[in-house]
Amino acid sequence: MGTIERPREDGEVIDRQTVRFKRLLPGSIERMWAYLTEPEKRAQWFAGGPMELREGGKATLFFQHKNLMQPGETAPESYKQAVEGLTHDILITQCEPPRLLAYTWGASGENSEVVFELEPQGDKVLLTLTHQKLPNREEMRGNAGGWHLHLTMLTHLLEGTQPPRFWDTHALLEEKYRKLVP
């Protein structure tokens, strides 16, 4: 059996409305599924909150970025609400444990969709995150930078390594995706 190649870190623009990320992460598919669906585990890298794991199920993502920050970090003024607590209601559009989870993203009527696909790769899992139906370039840039940052946090969490400073990394990724997204 050959070596499994690690996917590139940057998001790939698939088309005008779609960006895709791939990460090869340590552990079983069941472990990775838990970090996508269990509120306490998901809160360690992204957002907590309850989730009805069924197609048509409702969920609330509760962002509290102060839990992802290192001591001494300060958030940009525009993100202060996400530091203390911000909720985002979503609707589950696909749920096939432990391989596929998809949900709406955005304001009602203009929802984009986030799709997580998991595929075992030996003692690792290939996570593919596709954010599709993004309404415009600015949304793609912002969401791409955010997903990159949160996937970085997840990678460090699962590898048991120290994550980078959240807001410093956020600023670098915002600038990067301004250039990467045409």
Report what the structure shows.
The protein has 182 residues and is of the alpha+beta class. It has one domain (12-180): START domain (Alpha-D-Glucose-1,6-Bisphosphate, Chain A, domain 4, 2-Layer Sandwich), CATH 3.30.530.20. Helix content is 31%, strand content 30%. The chain has five helices and seven strands. It has helices at residues 29-37, 39-42, 80-84, 137-159, 166-180; strands at residues 12-15, 18-26, 58-63, 86-96, 100-105, 112-121, 124-132. A seven-stranded antiparallel beta sheet has the order 1-2-7-6-5-4-3. A hairpin with a 3-residue loop joins β4 (86-96) and β5. α4 (137-159) packs across α5. It starts with 11 loop residues before the first strand and ends with a helix.
What keyword list fits this structure?
182 residues, Alpha-D-Glucose-1,6-Bisphosphate, Chain A, domain 4, 31% helix, globular
CATH architect. name: 2-Layer Sandwich
The strand order across the widest sheet is 1-2-7-6-5-4-3
Tally of helical runs: 5
Could you name the CATH class? Alpha Beta
Return the structural class: alpha+beta
Approximate strand percentage? 25-35%
Give the H and E element order: EEHHEHEEEEHH
Query: What is the name of the CATH topology?
Result: Alpha-D-Glucose-1,6-Bisphosphate, Chain A, domain 4
Low-confidence stretches: none
Helix content: 25-40%
User: How many domain units?
Assistant: 1
Kindly provide the radius of gyration, computed on alpha-carbon positions and rounded to a whole number of angstroms. 16 Å
The main sheet comes to: 7 strands, antiparallel
pLDDT averaged over residues: 93
Question: What is the CATH H-level superfamily?
Answer: START domain
Cα(first) to Cα(last) distance is 38 Å
Q: How many β-strands, per DSSP?
A: 7
